[in-house]
Amino acid sequence: MKNNLHQEFQKLYHKEAQHTFFSPGRVNLIGEHIDYNGGLVMPCAITLGTYMLTAPNDDQVFRFKSVNFNETLEIPIQNSYQKNGDSWFNYPLGVIHYFVKGSQPLQGLDMLYYGDIPIGSGLSSSASIEVVTAFAFNELFKGGFSKLELVLMAKKVENEFIGVNSGIMDQFAVAFGEENKALMLDCDTLDYEAVDCNLGDYLLAIINTNKPRKLAESKYNERVKECQTALKKLQLELDINNLCEIDVQTFDLHKHLITDATVLNRATHVVAENERVKLAAKALAGNNLKEFGRLMYASHDSLKNLYEVSGAELDAVVEYAATDKNVTGARMTGAGFGGCAIALVKKDSLDSFTQGLTEYYTAKIGYAPSVYSSLIGNGVGELHEEAVTK
Predict the structure, then answer these.
(1) Same domain for 203 and 102
(2) Which of 77, 138, 315, 283 is nearest to 209 (CA)?
(3) Are 289 and 347 in the same domain?
(4) Is residue 190 domain-shared with residue 218, that is, in the same domain?
(5) 210-247 pLDDT per residue, tens
(6) Per the residue annotation, which of 170, 260, 301, 324 is the catalytic one?
(7) Is 170 annotated as catalytic?
(8) Which pLDDT band, with edges at 50, 70 and 90, does 318 fall under?
(9) Is residue 66 part of an annotated ligand binding site?
(10) 89 in Cβ contact with 162 (< 8 Å)
């Protein structure tokens, strides 16, 4: 479909698209559920993502259409917008809602979106749509926003317009991603370091459990509240603003303040996972993929047993990966409750890994997973036509 987007735009709008933008999805290599706790995460942009084709119109309306969804929207240019049901177009509509608050002069725009990220898989299709829309509007209407300001705008869309209490990692990763690099991002200060991610003889396999999840309807917001409860308890003795400001040793000295066993488990995961990100950066810097893989397995175990955001489907993927000698590490990625897992698999063994996993998973779960291989790609930008039609 990617090769036919310009023809599809012509068919729908009876004119040529003038601009094409792309924003990737992301996977988080390690550092899960700590972005909203002020911790360190290590996402990377992938080569799957969202394409947005545009052309101006003289009707003073915004038209939203998608190759992936049947729902469309045509709405006049106005000073503010409200969420409209649960349709996909709320993500770009939310971006425009905050963009117009910046008093940018706008004109009508016809838009066509296409994403090759599996929807509901945990690969940040929503952040990809938000960021590509924010970037496109900033370019087309000379908004003057920095890339970081666009990231913050997209996060505000997710938190306030859509209503999901997510952190900034997803939007940051799809905006600032770099080819063959992971981003070690401090979610409190937004300082980041691009870490060389030389996978050598391995590739990144993305395994979609094909159990879709809707983040706003999951227990994600519940986990956020549990972490806030843990923080308030620790603040009785510690001068901290986020759980990730303390190391494991400090946490062990003060965890008696948290008397609820479930809340204690959540906080234990967060503090230890933050430490794992630091160790993972050292492992990658030293090309020690065996150690990086060990940390991936430890992360999954913590997410399964302490944070309780995994599930039979994600666990089945990691269980199988641990039996395959050509896999050095695997874990769930994203918010959990379904979605995707990732594995570091030897390049020449991807087919046998896929076959073995599919047989194991299908026997255990009752249906097959989908396996993708991805490169680590660049963040949001405008594409030349040949990049879409090649």
Answers:
(1) no
(2) 315
(3) yes
(4) no
(5) 986 665 456 888 999 999 999 999 999 999 999 999 99
(6) 170
(7) yes
(8) very high
(9) yes
(10) no
